[in-house]
Amino acid sequence: MNSTPPAPSPEQTTSGVSTDHPGVNELFALLAYGEVAAFYRLTEEARMAPNLRGRINMASMAAAEMNHYEMLRDALERRGVDVVPAMTKYASALENYHRLTTPSTWLEALVKTYVGDALAADFYLEIADSLPDEIADVVRSVLAETGHSQFVVAEVQAAVTASDKQRHRLALWSRRLLGEAITQAQYVLADHDELVDLVMSSGEGLTQMTEFFDRLQHTHSTRMHELGLA
Amino acid sequence: MNSTPPAPSPEQTTSGVSTDHPGVNELFALLAYGEVAAFYRLTEEARMAPNLRGRINMASMAAAEMNHYEMLRDALERRGVDVVPAMTKYASALENYHRLTTPSTWLEALVKTYVGDALAADFYLEIADSLPDEIADVVRSVLAETGHSQFVVAEVQAAVTASDKQRHRLALWSRRLLGEAITQAQYVLADHDELVDLVMSSGEGLTQMTEFFDRLQHTHSTRMHELGLA
Q: What is the pTM assigned to this prediction?
């Protein structure tokens, strides 16, 4: 289903990126802020839930984000880095993304949860493929599919099956989510040389970068089908 | 300790309370609603945090509540009970407690976090002592000290050492928290016969009940000392 990137060859996995590359701390700090920002946005957006079950599902997802945050904090601690000051520099990109994609309905909140989580996972797993195994393992376990967002699929599918207007509205909404995510990802890369260098110094470098955003759009389309929005 | 517990048999209890006492499901449902309510209150009150570190501490505590909720949901599922409808009947008592104790400052939020968590733990651990081991184990592991609220102590101590006015204000505040907690606990017991029966049918019964609220006040005083509020 997912357009999984080709399995990394041994040369790529041990691609010459050192575990003490300065970009690694930056990547972990960026992920850490992303988890905390997602936590607070999920709990904020849960206000729109029509019932207790919806609020509980959102709270469970939010709790999973904090568990991930704690893994990243511990990984940074082992590398001698204090997570809070390190992550602060990524606040603006992530807060901007969330501010520019504030849902106005519960269905928009659900779609954002599903699509946003998936996009973040795509983005970070692509980067993980070019990292030393030890670092990639941290990234992969943080982003491991928890199944928490599966409750979204049935609810969105039911709503868009019942209403073409909802389908069109949510399809536009999800395109906007993708656009803002790409914009903010580009801002982050433009501002943080260590991160760009981390990706560049891996096997494929620039080719990987240019193909990456294409792949992101492709996996996004797959998810639109899953939600009944294609 | 966790490896293959003996098959539950209602007669095999030291407390004289059967594991299929109807009050057990009620207790788990009450705890479950308490966790979800605490989750949303902590994230709400975290808005008053003066900095990112404070918001992260509150988010970590909130995430721990949801992990506890998931343990209770699983325990109820094993007993054939759907958690969401079961917990709804405890909404009003817990929401009333939180509504009547909405903090107006970050320090009040911190004290509420610490005292509220501790009172809930006292309350449920007292009940656990009178339950069959198998049920008591669930209650105790849900309420296991996570150490998440320790960050509160230093911050409150510093504030009340610097200001007598703060000390008096927060001492009054914590007395109000205790009062509202006891009031709501009494409402819950008055409305839910199965819970009263669960406590009564244990070893000490009524004596335990009358002594319980005294002990609650005593442990509360201990905590006031810890926070520098005594």
A: 0.84
